[in-house]
C-alpha cells in the first residue's frame, strides 16, 4: 500500500505532463465551450455531452490505457527490479493513469461550466452525474485496457482488441439488446433487459444518466420491475455498484495477470 | 555466508520454447561473474528470473539468501542496470532518483558518487525525455549503484557509454567488488569480460556449460584468449 | 323565479340587519343565528369552535367569520345552501369523515344561483365544496387541505355537477381525490388556481362544454389533469408540472373537440399531453419542457394542430401509436432540429419529423425504453430520418423554427 501510493505520486507527476492527456483535456474543453457558444444553456450542454461521456471518453481511456501499458514496459521492468511488489506496481500504474485521465475529463468539461456559471444557471446535479459517470467509465475502461494489454503480447493486437471492445460495448451491444427485445417481444422482458444492461459498463453509465435526465419518461413506463427498480434510489445504488464492479472485476483480473506475467 | 545467487535446476519455458533447461549455478560474493552465451541461450531469462521479472517453472532460486517467490524485499540489496534505460519520460532525473529513494524508504543511504563522476548533477533538472541516449545510460548506471547494492546485475552496461564514462564505470565496479559485492555481468564484449570478470558462466541452449574462474576456462580449453576459449565451448556444445 | 320573488318579499319585510353571533353573544351557535336571520341579513360569526350541524341556509344572506371561526363537522354534510344570493366569507370547515355511501361535503350548494364563496378554508374534509345545479356562483380564494388518505377515501376539493356560469378562481387545493371536478358544468371560468398533490387529477372534467381554464397551476397530482367528453374547451397559460408515473399525464385529452390550448407550459411530466379521440384541437405557443413524452397523439385524434410550440429537453417530443397517425405541425421550435436556415428567415429549410423511430419502437415494445439515449438508437433514428419507412410521414413540421424567442407565436 505504501509503495502503491508512492508510485502513484510519481506516476501522476509523469502522466500529468503527458501531452496527449493535455490534448485530451483541451479537446473536451473546446468541445464544451463550443456547445455553450452554439447557444446552449447549461442543461442542453449536459445533454449534448452525454454521448461524449458515454462514447468518446471510454474510447480514449481504452486505447490510451492499452498503448500506455505497452509503452511503459521498460519503466515497469525498471520498477519491478526495485523492492516493489507486483500488486503495488499494478495499482500504481492504474491509478496513476486513471487519475490524470479523470482530471482531464473533470477539468475539460468542468472549467467551461465554471466560466459560464455567472451568466446562466448550471444544472449542478446533472453535471455532477455526468462527470461522476465519466470518471467511473474512465476507471473501468483503463482497467479493461490493462487486461487487454496484458492478454496480448503484441501491441497491434492489443490495440485492435481495445478498439473492438469499444465497438462492441458502445455500438453493437445495444443493437443486440434491441434485437433480443424485438424477437422476444411477447415474453416478459424487463428483467432480462435489465440484466443485459448490467453486463455492459457503458450501458450502466447510460442508465445512471437516464436516472437523472429522463426520470419523467422512465416513470411513465408501465412495467413493475423497471418502475420499482428505476423509480427510486435503488436503481441509482445498484447501477452505481454494478459500475464499481466493472472497475473492481477487470482490476482483479488484470492484477492477477500482472502478478503472473513474465516481463 | 550464503551465495548471492543460487539457482538449482531452474527451468522455464515460453510456450513450446524451453528457455532454461535445468540451470544450476552459484555466485560468490566479492567476485564479478561474466554471463556469456549466444543469443537465445537464456541469458535474459536467467537475469529476469533473478530480478523476479520472470517466474521460473521449476527448480529453486535464492537471491541474497531469500527464496524468490514474489516477495519483493530481497531486491533491497540489488542493483540493476538494464540494457536499455527507461525512465518515466516526463519526470526529471532528480525526480526519478527521488522516486527510487522514496520506494526504499527514507534514510536509505545513498551513494551518489557516480552522479558527480559522470557530471550528471547539472542535468538532473531536465525531463528524462530530453536527455541524450548516453546520458540516460549514465543515469541508469548511477541508479544501479545508488543504494550500495550487495548484488549488481548488469546487462551490457558499457554498450551505451563513451570510453571515458566506461572507465569511470569500471573503476566503480572494482570498488564495489572490493567492498564484497557480487556482480553478474552479461556482455557480448569478451574483451571486456576478460578485463573485468573473475568467474564465468557460459550458457548454451538453456543450460550451464561452464561455470568457474576465467583462468580455469582458459586452462581447460588450452586457449590464451577468452574469445577463443568461448568459441571452443560453443563448438563443443554444438557437437 | 319564485326564489327571486321570495327574496323581494324578504327585502320588503324589513331593513337588512347585522346579527352578531358566537360565544358570549345572544346567538351562541350558528344554528341560532341562522334561525333568527331573515333575507338580506348579515351574520357575523365570531371566533370559536362550532360543533353543530347539519345546518342549512334557506334565505339569501351573508355569513362571515373571522380568523379562528371554525365549524367542526361530523358524518354528514355540514352546511347546505339552498337559497340564492348567499355570500359566505372567512369560515373554516374541519373534519368531515370519509364515506363510501354518500358524497358528504363541508359545504354544499344545491339548486341555487348567484352565491359568493370567498376566503373559505376546508381542512381534513372528505368533499370540500359541492356544487349541485348551481348557476352564476363565484368561488374565490378557497384553501382546501384534504385528508391525504387514499384515493378511495378522499373526495374532491371543489366538485361541481350540472352547473353553469361558475367562476372558480385563486383557490389553493391539495390532498383530495381531484382538485376540481366538473361534470355537466358549462360556460364557466377556472382561473388562477393552484391544484397540487391531489391523488388523482388536479382538475378533472367530463361532459363540460364551453369552459375556460386560465393561469392555473397543476403540480404533483397523481395522474395530472384529465379532460374528457367535452367541447369548446379553452386552456390558456396554465402550467402542468411534475406529474410522474405510468398512466400519468400533464394533460389527458379524451374525446375533446373544437378546443384551443395556447401558451400552456408542460414541464417534467411523464407525458405532457396525451390526446385520444380528439377532434379539431389546436395547440399554439405552448411549451413542452423536459417531459418523458412531450405529446402523445393517438391515431384516432383527428385534425390536431401544433403551431408555434416549443419542444425542448423531452425524452421523446412526439409519439404516436400508428404509422397512419396524422397531425399538423408548423412553426414549432424543436431542440432536436439540426437543419439549417440558408435564407435566414428564422425557419429551417428542411422539414423536421418529430416522431422518432425509437418512440414507435417503445410504443410497441415498452421494455425497449431501457435503450433510451443509446448511441445505437441515435444511429437508428438518423437512418430512419434519412430514409423514412416506419414513422408517419404525415407528422412532419414543414417549417420548424430555429429559435424560441418567447411568445411570438401568439400573434
Notes on the structure:
The complex is a heterotrimer of chains A (263), B (239) and C (411). Chain A is mainly α. Chain A has twelve helices and no strands. Helix content of chain A is 85%, strand content 0%. In chain A, helix 6 packs across helix 7. Chain B contains eight helices and ten strands. In chain B, strands 6-7-8-3-9-10 form a six-stranded mixed β-sheet, with helices on both faces. Chain B has a four-stranded antiparallel β-sheet with strand order 2-1-4-5, with helices on one face. By secondary structure, chain C is mainly beta. In chain C, 49% of the residues are buried. In chain C, helix 2 (30-36) links the parallel strand 1 and strand 2 (42-45). Chain C has a 25-stranded parallel β-sheet that branches. The A-B interface holds A 3, 6-7, 9-11, 13-18, 73-75, 77-86, 259-260, 262-263 and B 12, 14, 48, 51-55, 70-76, 78, 80, 82, 84-91, 95, 98-100, 102-104, 127, 153.
List keywords for this structure.
heterotrimer, A: 263 residues, mainly alpha, 12 helices, globular, B: 239 residues, alpha/beta, Rossmann fold, four-stranded antiparallel sheet, 8 helices
Question: Topology of this protein?
Answer:
The complex is a heterotrimer of chains A (263), B (239) and C (411).
Chain A: H1 2-16, H2 19-37, H3 42-71, H4 73-80, H5 86-116, H6 124-151, H7 155-183, H8 190-198, H9 201-213, H10 215-220, H11 224-231, H12 233-260
Chain B: E1 5-14, E2 17-26, E3 32-36, H1 43-51, E4 58-63, E5 66-67, E6 78-81, H2 93-103, H3 113-117, H4 133-145, E7 151-155, H5 163-178, E8 182-186, H6 190-196, E9 199-204, E10 207-213, H7 214-221, H8 226-238
Parallel strand pairs in B: 3-8, 3-9, 6-7, 7-8
Antiparallel strand pairs in B: 1-2, 1-4, 4-5, 9-10
Helix pairs in contact in B: 7-8
Chain C: H1 2-13, E1 18-21, H2 30-36, E2 42-45, E3 48-51, E4 55-57, E5 62-64, E6 69-72, E7 79-81, E8 87-89, E9 92-96, E10 105-110, E11 116-118, E12 121-125, E13 127-132, E14 138-140, E15 143-145, E16 158-161, E17 167-169, E18 172-174, E19 180-183, E20 189-191, E21 194-196, E22 203-206, E23 212-214, E24 217-219, E25 224-231, E26 234-236, E27 239-241, E28 249-262, E29 265-267, E30 271-276, E31 279-284, E32 287-289, E33 293-297, E34 302-307, E35 310-312, E36 316-319, E37 327-330, E38 333-334, H3 357-364, H4 375-386
Parallel strand pairs in C: 1-2, 2-5, 3-6, 4-7, 5-8, 6-9, 7-10, 8-11, 9-12, 10-13, 11-14, 12-15, 13-16, 14-17, 15-18, 16-19, 17-20, 18-21, 19-22, 20-23, 21-24, 22-25, 23-26, 24-27, 25-28, 26-28, 27-29, 28-30, 28-31, 29-32, 30-33, 31-34, 32-35, 33-36, 34-37, 35-38
Amino acid at each position: 500500500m505504501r509503495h502503491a501510493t508512492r508510485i502513484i505520486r510519481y506516476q501522476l507527476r509523469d502522466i500529468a505532463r503527458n501531452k496527449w492527456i493535455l490534448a485530451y483535456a483541451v479537446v473536451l474543453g473546446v468541445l464544451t465551450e463550443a456547445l455553450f457558444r452554439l447557444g446552449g444553456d447549461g442543461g442542453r450542454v449536459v445533454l449534448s455531452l452525454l454521448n461524449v461521456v458515454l462514447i468518446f471518453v471510454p474510447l480514449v481511456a481504452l486505447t490510451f490505457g492499452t498503448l500506455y501499458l505497452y509503452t511503459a514496459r521498460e519503466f515497469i521492468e525498471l520498477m519491478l527490479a526495485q523492492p516493489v511488489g507486483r500488486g503495488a506496481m499494478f495499482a500504481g500504474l492504474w491509478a496513476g493513469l486513471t487519475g490524470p485521465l479523470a482530471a482531464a475529463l473533470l477539468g475539460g468539461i468542468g472549467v467551461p461550466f465554471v466560466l459560464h456559471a455567472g451568466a446562466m444557471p448550471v444544472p449542478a446535479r446533472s453535471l455532477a452525474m455526468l462527470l461522476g459517470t465519466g470518471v467511473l467509465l474512465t476507471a473501468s475502461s483503463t482497467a479493461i485496457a490493462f487486461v487487454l494489454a496484458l492478454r496480448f503480447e503484441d501491441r497491434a493486437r492489443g490495440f485492435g482488441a481495445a478498439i473492438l471492445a469499444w465497438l462492441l460495448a458502445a455500438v453493437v451491444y445495444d443493437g443486440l439488446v434491441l434485437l433480443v427485445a424485438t424477437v422476444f417481444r411477447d415474453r416478459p422482458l424487463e428483467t432480462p433487459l435489465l440484466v443485459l444492461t448490467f453486463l455492459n459498463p457503458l450501458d450502466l453509465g447510460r442508465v445512471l444518466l437516464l436516472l437523472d435526465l429522463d426520470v419523467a419518461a422512465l416513470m411513465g413506463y408501465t412495467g413493475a420491475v423497471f418502475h420499482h427498480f428505476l423509480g427510486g434510489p435503488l436503481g441509482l445504488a445498484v447501477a452505481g455498484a454494478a459500475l464499481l464492479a466493472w472497475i473492481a472485476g477487470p482490476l482483479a483480473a488484470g492484477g492477477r495477470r500482472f502478478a503472473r506475467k513474465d516481463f | 555466508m550464503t551465495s548471492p545467487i543460487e539457482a538449482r535446476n531452474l527451468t522455464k519455458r515460453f510456450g513450446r520454447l524451453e528457455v532454461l533447461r535445468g540451470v544450476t549455478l552459484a555466485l560468490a560474493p566479492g567476485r564479478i561473474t561474466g554471463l556469456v552465451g549466444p543469443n537465445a541461450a537464456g541469458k535474459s531469462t536467467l537475469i529476469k528470473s533473478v530480478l523476479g521479472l520472470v517466474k521460473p517453472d521449476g527448480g529453486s532460486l535464492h537471491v541474497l539468501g531469500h527464496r524468490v517467490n514474489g516477495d519483493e524485499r530481497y531486491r533491497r540489496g540489488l542493483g540493476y542496470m538494464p540494457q536499455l534505460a527507461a525512465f518515466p519520460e516526463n519526470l526529471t532525473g532528480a525526480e526519478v532518483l527521488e522516486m527510487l529513494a522514496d520506494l526504499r524508504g527514507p534514510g536509505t543511504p545513498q551513494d551518489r558518487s557516480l552522479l558527480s563522476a559522470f557530471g550528471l548533477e547539472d542535468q538532473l533538472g531536465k525531463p528524462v525525455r530530453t536527455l541524450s541516449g548516453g546520458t540516460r545510460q549514465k543515469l541508469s548506471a548511477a541508479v544501479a549503484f545508488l543504494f550500495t547494492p550487495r548484488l549488481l546485475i548488469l546487462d551490457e552496461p558499457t554498450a551505451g557509454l563513451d570510453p571515458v564514462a566506461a572507465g569511470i564505470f569500471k573503476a566503480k565496479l572494482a570498488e564495489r567488488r572490493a567492498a564484497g559485492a557480487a556482480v553478474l555481468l552479461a556482455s557480448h564484449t569478451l574483451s571486456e569480460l576478460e578485463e573485468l570478470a573473475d568467474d564465468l558462466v557460459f550458457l548454451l541452449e538453456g543450460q550451464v556449460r561452464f561455470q568457474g574462474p576465467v583462468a580455469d576456462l582458459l586452462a581447460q580449453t588450452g586457449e590464451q584468449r577468452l574469445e577463443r576459449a568461448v568459441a571452443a565451448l560453443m563448438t563443443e556444445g554444438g557437437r | 323565479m319564485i326564489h327571486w320573488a321570495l327574496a323581494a318579499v324578504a327585502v320588503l319585510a324589513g331593513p337588512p340587519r347585522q346579527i352578531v353571533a358566537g360565544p358570549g353573544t345572544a346567538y351562541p351557535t350558528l344554528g341560532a343565528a341562522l334561525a333568527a336571520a331573515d333575507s338580506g341579513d348579515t351574520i357575523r360569526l365570531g371566533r370559536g369552535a362550532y360543533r353543530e350541524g347539519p345546518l342549512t341556509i334557506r334565505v339569501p344572506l351573508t355569513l362571515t367569520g373571522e380568523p379562528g371561526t371554525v365549524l367542526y363537522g361530523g358524518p354528514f354534510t355540514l352546511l347546505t345552501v339552498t337559497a340564492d344570493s348567499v355570500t359566505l366569507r372567512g369560515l373554516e370547515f374541519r373534519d368531515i369523515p370519509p364515506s363510501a355511501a354518500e358524497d358528504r361535503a363541508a359545504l354544499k350548494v344545491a339548486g341555487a344561483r348567484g352565491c359568493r364563496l370567498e376566503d373559505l378554508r376546508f381542512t381534513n374534509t372528505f368533499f370540500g365544496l359541492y356544487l349541485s345545479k348551481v348557476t352564476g356562483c363565484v368561488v374565490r380564494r378557497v384553501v382546501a387541505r384534504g385528508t391525504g388518505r387514499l384515493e378511495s377515501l378522499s373526495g374532491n376539493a371543489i366538485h361541481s355537477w350540472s352547473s353553469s356560469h361558475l367562476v372558480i378562481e385563486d383557490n389553493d387545493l391539495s390532498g383530495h381525490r381531484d382538485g376540481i371536478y366538473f361534470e355537466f358544468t358549462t360556460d364557466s371560468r377556472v382561473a388562477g388556481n393552484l391544484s397540487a398533490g391531489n391523488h388523482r387529477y388536479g382538475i378533472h372534467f367530463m361532459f363540460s362544454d364551453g369552459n375556460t381554464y386560465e393561469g392555473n397551476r397543476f403540480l404533483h397530482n397523481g395522474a395530472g389533469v384529465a379532460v374528457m367528453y367535452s367541447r369548446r374547451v379553452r386552456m390558456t397559460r396554465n402550467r402542468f408540472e411534475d406529474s410522474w408515473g405510468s398512466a400519468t399525464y400533464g394533460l389527458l385529452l379524451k374525446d375533446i373537440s373544437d378546443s384551443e390550448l395556447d401558451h400552456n407550459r408542460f414541464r417534467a411530466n411523464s407525458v405532457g399531453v396525451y390526446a385520444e379521440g380528439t377532434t379539431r384541437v389546436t395547440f399554439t405557443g405552448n411549451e413542452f419542457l423536459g417531459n418523458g413524452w412531450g405529446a402523445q397523439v393517438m391515431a384516432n385524434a383527428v385534425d390536431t394542430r401544433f403551431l408555434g410550440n416549443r419542444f425542448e429537453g423531452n425524452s421523446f417530443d412526439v409519439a404516436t401509436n400508428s404509422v397512419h397517425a396524422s397531425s399538423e405541425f408548423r412553426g414549432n421550435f424543436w431542440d432536436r432540429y439540426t437543419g439549417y436556415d440558408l435564407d435566414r428567415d428564422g425557419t429551417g429549410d428542411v422539414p423536421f419529423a418529430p416522431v422518432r423511430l425509437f418512440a414507435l419502437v417503445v410504443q410497441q415494445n415498452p421494455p425497449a425504453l431501457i435503450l433510451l439515449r443509446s448511441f445505437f438508437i441515435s444511429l437508428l433514428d438518423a437512418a430512419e430520418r434519412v430514409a423514412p419507412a416506419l414513422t408517419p410521414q404525415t407528422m412532419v413540421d414543414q417549417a420548424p423554427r430555429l429559435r424560441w424567442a418567447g411568445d411570438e407565436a401568439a400573434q
